[in-house]
Amino acid sequence: MPTLELQEVTAGYPTRDGWFPVLDSLHLSLDRGEWLAIVGPSGCGKTTLLRVAAGLLLPQSGTVRVEGGPPRGRVGFMPHGETLLPWRTLLGNVLAAWEVDRRPTALDRSEAAALLEHFGLGAFLQAYPHEVSAGMRQRASLARTFFAPRPVYLLDEPLGALDPLTRLELQEWLAGIRSTLAKTAVLVTHDVEEALVLGDRALVLSSRPARAVAEFRVEVPRDRGRPEFVALRGEVLAALRRGKEGHGRA
Amino acid sequence: MGGRDRLGAAVVALLLIGTWEAGVRLGNVPPYVLPAPSAVLRSFVHDFPLLLHHAGATLGAFGVGLSLGVAAGVLLAGLSFYVRPVGRALAPFLVGSQMIPVFAVAPLLVLWFGYGILAKAAVAATISFFPIAVNALDGLRSVRPELLEFFQALGAGEGKLLRLVRLPAALPFLLSGLRVGGTLALVGATIGEWVGASRGLGYLMIRANAQLRTDLVFAAILLLTLLGLGFFGSVGLLERALPPRRSRLRTP
Q1: A77 and B153 in contact by Cβ < 8 A?
Q2: Which tens digit of pLDDT belongs to each residue from A233-242?
Q3: Which CATH superfamily includes the segment(s) B40-241?
Q4: Radius of gyration (C-alpha) of chain B in whole angstroms
């Protein structure tokens, strides 16, 4: 059984002028331990896709299954932007994810602290979000998301809104600790290199309403300088362009 | 308030008090019309035990009234937030209720609740619940949806959302409402005592006025002002002790 499965999912929003389609019969399937990167033009519906997969938005048709059941309550969802609770310390924020399930014990506290330490934030457990840098907040957000045990995690631009250098550093860092985390994740990004550095597969979506244009398995070494990587990046970019133009013609 | 503002305020206060003192002395104003600040201070010190005795009753009515006001305000805010039709139906009446002068209603409240503490508490509650309700509702509505979605996806129900996100986010708003409502509640308790009481600073003022003890009236006003400022300041301290809420962070 796939960990996360979307079948023929069509979704959209009602507007005053009628139905506004965002996702067009999308299909995706994710096995345990896999990381799927989704790339697409801005505004193509990547966030909507995650909201549907998280059970926050019901699809118009099609099904979403997490380990065979409905998704609500069974996924960790990291929304786009700054979403840490400003009145809680970094440690308090990570524990908040746990409090959805049950009261944290002393053991949970030390595990949360250990996770933050693993994420390079050991010296900032008692700092408030506004006291640390944007990159650190992003790492704390990731730690909070991963702290609640769920079969699958949905990350909406987890490294968005950072300056290019910090973003690059965090990409390398996340790629480095990915294997130690042993999680299953879908990650949405508009950055092709990020998709190829962090994903086992990269799914390219078209402009709205989003359809799957192509899917790539990342089997080249994840080194931006290697010719194989550069070639794959070129292929993904070409697919992106196809998705944009193809839709323009339709 | 910066150091310069503070200095400015002190200068204004000294000028006012100085003019008042000089005016009373030079103009030979009878003390039962307008006592000099020095006479007010003398009465404040000399009659302090008496003032304290009556302040106890006023503070009691204030405390009970404000608690009722907070309870009613928070309840109304919660109701308006969660049951929107009820909130919309109540809104015009709540706003309308604020147009009725409390002075006009106070005698009725005394008629209904008697001469005890309850009538004064009722006046204080009537006058204080509104700013508390408005601020609490603003607080509940202040939460950005993305803050909630993280917890909703994990499976948090409304109770968890309320405890983890909505209430902590609303707390500073509630304290702002408490600051305004508390100040009004003190006024309300005093008005209640004017209308009918056998104890309290409001009652003392009426009695002192009838006895031409204008200095004592002013001393009671001075004590009420100090009590109000003390409450205002303590809520401010509480606000500052809270962890940060509205940080400068914004989603770009």
Answers
A1: yes
A2: 999 999 988 8
A3: MetI-like (1.10.3720.10)
A4: 22
